[in-house]
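A reminder from the course coordinator: this example appears on the midterm review sheet, so study it carefully.

Given structure:
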């Protein structure tokens, strides 16, 4: 199966956040970044005639975001994060990005992010986190009436553009 997945292609990460956190703004920040980048709204299908995979980009912004409230020992959270890092993504469905916010109480949180490597890489993850942070800070500073995505530079290419460019290189057309 060409869309077979394997946990070794996961890109997990966790951040400890101590201090005041506006959870609604954080979730909104993720939605804005998912809306900005096609790769986070992408699934992969198989053409039944050619048996070749192809990319499907959804216009709908759907976020796999869960907040886990209540006291959980750090040891249990670490185990949940490790287990989550080995989850399998179904490439033919969206949600190749998973976000969990563990609310430890007393303004103490762990933000866990896991995404499939087919939609991101280490370099992209850094940009992703910078954009989440910039939008979160913008919205947190009472800028809710402005279009937060406009504070970020325009994207010159999307994931599909890059994939096409790579395909042309491999086929010797560039």
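Designed residues:
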């Amino acid at each position: 199966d060409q869309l077979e997945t394997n946990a070794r292609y996961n890109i997990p990460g966790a951040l400890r956040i101590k201090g005041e956190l506006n959870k609604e703004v954080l979730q909104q920040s993720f939605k804005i970044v998912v809306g900005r980048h096609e790769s986070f709204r992408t699934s992969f299908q198989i053409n039944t005639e050619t048996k070749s995979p192809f990319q499907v980009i959804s216009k709908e912004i759907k976020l796999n975001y869960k907040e886990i409230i209540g006291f959980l020992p750090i040891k249990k959270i670490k185990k949940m994060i490790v287990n989550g890092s080995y989850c399998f993504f179904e490439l033919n469905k969206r949600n190749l990005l998973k976000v969990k916010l563990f609310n430890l109480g007393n303004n103490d949180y762990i933000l866990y992010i896991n995404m499939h490597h087919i939609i991101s890489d280490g370099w992209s993850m850094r940009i992703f986190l910078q954009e989440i942070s910039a939008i979160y800070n913008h919205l947190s500073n009472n800028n809710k009436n402005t279009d937060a995505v406009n504070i970020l530079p325009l994207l010159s290419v999307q994931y599909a553009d890059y994939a096409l460019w790579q395909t042309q290189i491999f086929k010797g057309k560039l």
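The mean pLDDT is 87. The first strand starts at residue 10 and ends at 18.
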